[in-house]
Amino acid sequence: xxxxxxxxxxxxxxxxxxxxxxxxxxxxxxxxxxxxxxxxxxxxxxxxxxxxxxxxxxxxxxxxxxxxxxxxxxxxxxxxxxxxxxxxxxxxxxxxxxxxxxxxxxxxxxxxxxxxxxxxxxxxxxxxxxxxxxxxxxxxxxxxxxxxxxxxxxxxxxxxxxxxxxxxxxxxxxxxxxxxxxxxxxxxxxxxxxxxxxxxxxxxxxxxxxxxxxxxxxxxxxxxxxxxxxxxxxxxxxxxxxxxxxxxxxxxxxxxxxxxxxxxxxxxxxxxxxxxxxxxxxxxxxxxxxxxxxxxxxxxx
Amino acid sequence: xxxxxxxxxxxxxxxxxxxxxxxxxxxxxxxxxxxxxxxxxxxxxxxxxxxxxxxxxxxxxxxxxxxxxxxxxxxxxxxxxxxxxxxxxxxxxxxxxxxxxxxxxxxxxxxxxxxxxxxxxxxxxxxxxxxxxxxxxxxxxxxxxxxxxxxxxxxxxxxxxxxxxxxxxxxxxxxxxxxxxxxxxxxxxxxxxxxxxxxxxxxxxxxxxxxxxxxxxxxx
Amino acid sequence: xxxxxxxxxxxxxxxxxxxxxxxxxxxxxxxxxxxxxxxxxxxxxxxxxxxxxxxxxxxxxxxxxxxxxxxxxxxxxxxxxxxxxxxxxxxxxxxxxxxxxxxxxxxxxxxxxxxxxxxxxxxxxxxxxxxxxxxxxxxxxxxxxxxxxxxxxxxxxxxxxxxxxxxxxxxxxxx
Lengths: 301, 220, 175
Hints:
The complex is a heterotrimer.
Chain A: H1 5-36, H2 46-55, H3 65-83, H4 102-124, H5 127-158, H6 163-169, H7 178-181, H8 183-197, H9 221-246, H10 253-273, H11 279-300
Helix pairs in contact in A: 1-9, 1-10, 2-9, 3-4, 3-9, 4-5, 5-8, 5-11, 8-9, 8-11, 9-10
Chain B: E1 15-18, E2 24-27, H1 29-32, H2 48-60, E3 62-65, H3 73-76, E4 91-94, E5 102-106, H4 111-123, E6 129-133, H5 134-139, E7 161-163, H6 170-185, H7 191-197, H8 199-209
Parallel strand pairs in B: 3-4, 3-5, 5-6, 6-7
Antiparallel strand pairs in B: 1-2
Helix pairs in contact in B: 2-6
Chain C: H1 2-11, E1 14-21, E2 24-29, H2 34-44, E3 49-58, E4 63-72, E5 77-86, H3 101-113, H4 144-151, H5 163-171
Parallel strand pairs in C: 2-5
Antiparallel strand pairs in C: 1-2, 3-4, 4-5
């Protein structure tokens, strides 16, 4: 089997673009949050400085093997989602390593990072890590249920588990997008997306005011740098996934960035408006409205 | 007076617990739960240009440990409000000592608090800075004759920047951040290495006033 | 209020009554009668809230004056039961069975003044001063400035001024 080196190069280049895009977007989010609070806020490039500083910490400590592997697993989860997802429809090089069943693999990678984080955080031994990770896993499990059902609805609609074919089925104008042809599944997925992004109504997992920072309590320096890198990649990847699934994909980079930008800011603005749910409120919430909507979405098909 | 009973922390005494298979496990928390390796000195990078770049990053991204002592902690919260907005200068609050770079000792330190402050300080990772607010940390301030408030902070941990005042207003603290940034960029803020080099002295001073020393000497 | 004080005087050997305000009386009783008097106020007169237990150190008289201040929510009134105990053999009957918060007050008094409360739970644990090995610091024979100078590291060059004279010199030097 020969490796398509150019394709690999393009994938890595895409990863680099997505990383920078995610970092800038994170800075922009902080900036918008500050503006809404009538502050000026940090510079847009602040995430880069934080990243450099974290990688440049001089001393680091470890709590064992899993403590190392936790951030690595999380990064693998983020990169994995990216690697198997077509970025630009119709482009050979920018479609990364998507194949016939890539949706299922991506769904798996989403949970994989969380599980790796759970193992690593448990090794750290801090009680807040345990609380945070147990909350995170239980919330993420309930988020997955409506999201998976919505994805199944889309897959049934297009008779395929391949993202490329799902995107292909949505070409030809806004009325062909899945959010228009199957609005119930689309809305359910968008609501589940709020939970996936861990924006404000559902960010009790990492909220500094509730439990000091949750799972990454013990992570510092390079570990935290890895987690920050992953956050940039993962969240952009998830919003690109949403674009592919429900908003007709993208045929060029500009379209992709505009669309994923809009999708990305949906949880941000919701988070700025709504207060935070407790974990015992958010889990039933995900099992009520988004679940019902996604089941209706399946029956619609 | 009769001699005082020595109080022993029940969580830190040596004990035997019974494992899940019925075997006896001896637990000595000071030995088992903490690592007592002494701090090491970390040399700056050889290449000057890298070190300067890293120092710039450290100066522009100061993560403050949310540890408030005394009356100054109430002066720290306005820093995050729209009026003062320390985020503009790359100053952020971190809830855990592992991720923080800057420890702000905000006012008088009683002996009991000093013990906790030292523990938090030692858990921070190497490029770490200390900023001391108020005259209480400089010379004792109005608590100079108190039986349980320390007089000089720099005898117990290396201090990078003192902000004078009783209490300093948030503007003064912002100026203190600027002074700290200049110091970091000049490569002078090597508090962690100083602490590692003069570890014996600092530890002797700490143990002189913390009488029930029931923790390991260095608990990173 | 007058009635309650009369009841107290009838039931106990009251040595002195001092009316501070209409709703605050200081009633001095003997050492052995203090706890029964507090119990009587709590159970029979509705003074259900323990405001605080506090001590004044009368070094010249050689006594500690203990105050048990209790509050009545119906009358919005306080009564303080005062009692004098010997300074050298400072031992007092414990009030831990009346209010649980008395545990902490007694722990603090034990640590700060060295007053013994036999039978009070956790009274021997250190409260604020972990591992204190000197005489209790709130006793007036304890020289806190000397202790601070010996223990901590006074920064050389620190001067203290009397605020009144210093401000007068600074602000009105000609007067």
